[in-house]
Amino acid sequence: MISIIDYGAGNLKSVSKALERLDLDSAVTSSFEDINNSKAMILPGVGSFGDCMKSLRSKGLDRCIIENVNKGKYLLGICLGLQLLYENSYEDGIWKGLGLLKGEIIRFDSTNKVPHMGWNNLIKGKDDFLSQNINEEEYVYFVHSYYAKPENAKDVVFWTEYGVKVPAVVRRNNIMGMQFHPEKSGPTGLKLLKNFGEMIR
């Protein structure tokens, strides 16, 4: 079972329905017991970085996530959930994230319209299990005003371009993130979620 972590923010139902279409067993939960007993975790995110981190911390879910990751359990952050994996964000102040990946979250400058909203293609950064059956002509759906600036570019599976190079899919061992919404990205998004599901079978 995959735990879709419910901390009061996130596109929970659409993520759950996407996994259901792929015959991946999941549950929307904030229960430590459920999360501890699950095969993998998904951390969705909608809204502001600071509010999401405050909610995670108030429920003790930040510690629960970190403990499970340290035991080797797979974690996938979606949209803002990817950003929460990093050390710091500069959205409306300075906020500490989960610190599972080294780097920071910064705002797009005024080169292009902000937020970045729409379909962009994926540019391969490295071969990875997550990148199986995905080519650079495929598009996914983004909605965000901030993006990750990773300390280690080798963590990036796919980039996209929006005035600057934006990490679209990242992975370091059992920690993964997708800056776009795979559940809203049609067949390509489902293939990426399927690859994640195959990793944990």
Keywords:
four-stranded mixed beta sheet; alpha/beta; eight-stranded mixed beta sheet; 28% helix; 201 residues; Rossmann fold; 31% strand
Chain-wise SSE layout:
Blueprint: E1 2-5, H1 12-21, E2 26-29, H2 32-37, E3 40-43, H3 49-58, H4 61-70, E4 74-78, H5 80-84, E5 88-89, E6 95-96, E7 103-107, E8 116-121, E9 123-124, E10 139-144, E11 146-150, E12 156-161, E13 165-172, E14 175-178, H6 186-200
Parallel strand pairs: 1-2, 1-3, 3-4, 4-14, 5-7
Antiparallel strand pairs: 5-6, 7-11, 8-10, 9-12, 12-13, 13-14
Plain-language structure description:
With 201 residues, this protein is α/β, with parallel strands linked by helices. The chain has one domain (2-200): Class I glutamine amidotransferase (GATase) domain (Rossmann fold). It has 6 helices and 14 strands. The protein has helices at 12-21, 32-37, 49-58, 61-70, 80-84, 186-200; strands at residues 2-5, 26-29, 40-43, 74-78, 88-89, 95-96, 103-107, 116-121, 123-124, 139-144, 146-150, 156-161, 165-172, 175-178. The chain has an 8-stranded mixed β-sheet, with helices on both faces. The protein has a 4-stranded mixed β-sheet with strand order 6-5-7-11. A hairpin with a 5-residue loop joins strand 5 and strand 6 (95-96). The longest helix is centred in the last third of the chain and has 15 residues, at 186-200. The protein is globular and about 45 Å long. It starts with a strand and ends with a helix.
